[in-house]
Structures are given as structure tokens and as C-alpha cells.
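We append the chain.
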Amino acid sequence: MKKIKTIIMSGSETGCRYAELLRSLDTVDLILAVTGVDRPCGRGSVIKRADLAEFCDQKGLDSYQTCNVNSEESVDLLRSAGADLAFVVDFGQILSPEVLNLFPLGAYNIHYSILPELRGAAPVRWALIRGYDKTGVTLMRMNERIDEGGMVSSKELSIHSDDNHDILKNRLTDIGLKLTENFFMELSRGKIPEPVSQTDARATNAPKIKGSPEIDWDSTAEEICDLIRGMAPSPGCITRHQDKGMKIKILKACISEVEPLNCGSVSSVEKRKFTVSAADKSVEILMLQPAGKRPMSAASFLAGNSLEKGEKFV
């Protein structure tokens, strides 16, 4: 049986899980991994090896790092590799028509939504922020338009009330891996799936979110909790104590039955917990991170900080 010569392209840790799957399949010859360049990380700006490149180092796989997959150098290298297919997940770079046309069997992308909903760079975050009760994974054949390629397969997933970004993404990855395995099994049997065109009229966008958004306490409690879930555990959502000037990231919260006061006002303080008023209900803060400190529980925060009912966050 002729193996499918495959290149994986990914710019995140998630790509390592797909690379591990591909290298384990008898039907696949994983000949190259393409990822981004090493970048400074943390307060000391220590250069961090790209996740997929580090994975390849450990597994003895060939890797190529570039900040521009469409450059002349990159195109020449990809062409010389002679791959049958490109498999793209969480790459963060747009493939030009020239690159897409290098692969006889096509370039395929795993996207974490049921397309055409949530096209864009942050579908997992926006599914949570918008309060969706379900999302899913789509495998599509790529074209020159971002996330508009024909759909090969998809599977829905219910969103749980305790999901945050990382938890939900991991659950979606489990589904994506199964779709990927099934796809390559079909290819090995000579069955090239016919992509189904997306319905553009149903399309919604999920653009990249830069930095930590600020909490608008004039929003409903549900909207605030959904925003916090979508941005947790990193980079979190920001709020500030009006009088103390304390900047805090909120990492986990839930809707409370405590009667709210004015929006942003502390509506209750107990020994181990506190709530803040939203437009309709109160929000109980469960996990937070004051500026310059480690993440902590509300109980730990209250043990070292005084907080009174009626004080205001903005």
C-alpha cells in the first residue's frame, strides 16, 4: 500500500497531537512539519522553541520554521519535498494559491466550528463568548479564501457549563483527531471525499482577540461569565478597583443569586467569597489574578485584601 506523503502545518501545541496521530498511521508518511519561528517568551524574553519544532526534535522528524510560508524560499522547499497532501491546523498563516496548488491531493484544514459559522482565528473563544450551547469541528479542503473551503466532514459537540477555552479546545481536538484518522483511512482506500460547498448566507465571523478584554459590568451576568469563560485560563479578562486602582484579571466566575447593587459594585463579601453586580444579577468571582501576582481563589484573595460591600469595580 502506497503511503500518503504528508506535510503538517501548525503554529500551536495542538499541532503536536495531530502530528503524533499522523506519524502513527500506517497510511501516512509524515515527511515534514512546517511551523513558525522561535519567539521570546515571558518576562525574561527567553527564546522559546516553537512547539511543533520541539516535538519534531524529540521524535526525529524533519521540520521547517518560517514566518512566511508563501516566500520564495518556502515555496521552493515545499515543492522539493514532493508531498501528496498538506494538513493544516492552527497554523496562523494564510496559504497562497501557489502553495495550495503544490499538493496533488490538496490542502486540508481542521477548523474548530461547524462551518460556515465562526470563520476566523478564534472560533473556540467566540463560541463561549456568544453563549453557544454547541459547536463542533469541520474538516475542509482549503481554497484561497479563509475558512471558505468545501467541507469534507464535521461533527458537533455540546458545550458544558464548566468549559473554558482550553477545556473546550481539548475536547474539540479529540473529535478532530477522529475525523482526521477517518479521512486518511478513506484516502488510503482510494476514496477522495467530495467537498460540500458552504452556505455563505449562514456565515459568522470569529476574529482574533488581542490581549485581555475589559469587563463591562453594565452587561448581564450571563454575558460577563461567558466572556470570562472564553478568555480563560489565559489571557483572562480585566477589571479595576475604582478607588484602590488595583488591576485584576478574572479567570473564573459564575452567576450568583445575591441581589445586585449598581453595576460594578460589590454586592456581597463573605469570608471565602464575594460577588460583583452586573446589569441583572450578581457575578461570583471564583478565580482571579491581581497584577504581578499568581492566579488565586477568591478565598485567598480575601485573606490578603480588604473588600467591602458597595466598593466598585470598573
